């Protein structure tokens, strides 16, 4: 094993600055296993290129450390301009640096549902990742199957959305129920919430994969970002809806 120091982020990360043109989405940075210094250098590279920086899984402590690293590393430019606007959502652990695209008037909207408040971090991650791409979203919380009347009361409202993202832990039944009631594409997101065998999200994942509701799509456990990008791909495939 080499005893050399770990190379800096600019030698480890190859920024995909053409992803927006190629796929209609910005490059997202996984922040959980990166140091504040590495995240700061990636943000600097993206912002210097005029691209929005989207970083997932950033704790509140790490967010503060990233700010410090950015201020120390960018003495040659106006840091305020580089980092404006700075948007951090602690519940979703999501950091967005730079202005998101404006939401076009009359554009298709994505509904983001969650079964309970424990699912909010994942639902908010999906919602904010879509906002970073100029997509209109609306959050509908606490409509789990334990109180089915709460979901049924929202059925008319659900008709307004082009795509639905549905987050649920425990046994993960909510996406199946929703997909059995509405015609839009439904993307299920299993959440690592629940007692006993539900903990870790595997039960919710397997329940959604075994769903009897035809056409239900499922992403990985806690993958709010992936659900948001799946919705974006669905909408970008429609005529006149390219983000």
Features:
single chain, 243 residues, alpha/beta, Rossmann fold, 2 domains, 5-stranded parallel β-sheet, 4-stranded mixed β-sheet, 9 strands, 36% helix
First-last Cα distance? 46 Å
Give the C-level CATH assignment of the largest domain. Answer: Alpha Beta
Estimate what percentage of residues fall within beta strands.
15-25%
What's the CATH topology label of the largest domain?
Rossmann fold
Overall average residue pLDDT: 89
Which class of secondary structure composition applies to the elements? alpha/beta
- Helical content stands at 25-40%
Strand order of the largest sheet: 6-5-7-8-9
In total, the number of domains comes to: 2
In the predicted model, the low-confidence regions spanning at least 5 consecutive residues are none
Succession of helices and strands: HHEHEHHEEEHEHHEHEHEH
Q: Supply the number of helical segments.
A: 11
Radius of gyration: 19 Å
Identify the overall geometry.
Answer: globular
- CATH architecture tag of the largest domain: 3-Layer(aba) Sandwich
Count of individual beta strands: 9
Sheet with the most strands, sense and barrel status: 5 strands, parallel
Overall description:
The chain is of the alpha/beta class and 243 residues long. It folds into two domains: 9-97, no CATH class; 109-236, Rossmann fold (3-Layer(aba) Sandwich). The chain has helices at 9-12, 19-23, 36-48, 60-73, 79-82, 120-131, 148-152, 155-158, 174-179, 202-209, 224-236, and strands at 28-30, 53-56, 86-89, 94-97, 109-114, 136-140, 163-168, 186-190, 217-218. Helix 3 packs across helix 4 (60-73) and helix 6 (120-131) packs parallel to helix 11. The longest helix has 14 residues, at 60-73. The radius of gyration is 19 Å and the shape is globular. The mean pLDDT is 89.
């Amino acid at each position: 094993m080499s005893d050399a120091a770990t190379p800096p982020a600019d030698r480890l990360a190859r920024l995909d600055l053409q992803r927006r043109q190629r796929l209609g989405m910005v490059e997202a940075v996984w922040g959980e296993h990166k140091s504040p210094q590495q995240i700061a250098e990636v943000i600097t590279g993206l912002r210097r290129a005029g691209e929005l920086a989207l970083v997932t899984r950033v704790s509140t402590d790490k967010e503060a450390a990233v700010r410090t690293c950015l201020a120390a590393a960018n003495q040659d430019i106006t840091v305020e301009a580089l980092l404006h606007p700075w948007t951090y959502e602690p519940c979703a652990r999501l950091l967005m640096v730079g202005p998101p695209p404006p939401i076009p008037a009359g554009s298709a909207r994505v509904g983001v549902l969650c079964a309970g408040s424990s699912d909010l971090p994942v639902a908010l991650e999906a919602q904010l990742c879509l906002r970073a791409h100029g997509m209109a979203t609306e959050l509908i919380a606490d409509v789990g199957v334990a109180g089915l009347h709460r979901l049924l009361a929202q059925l008319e409202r659900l008709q307004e959305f082009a795509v639905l993202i549905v987050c649920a832990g425990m046994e993960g039944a909510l996406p199946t129920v929703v997909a059995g009631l509405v015609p839009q594409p439904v993307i299920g997101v299993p959440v690592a919430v629940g007692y006993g065998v539900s903990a870790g999200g595997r039960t919710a994942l397997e329940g959604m994969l075994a769903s009897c509701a035809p056409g239900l799509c499922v992403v990985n456990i806690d993958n709010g970002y992936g659900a948001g990008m799946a919705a974006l791909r669905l909408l970008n495939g429609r005529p006149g809806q390219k983000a």
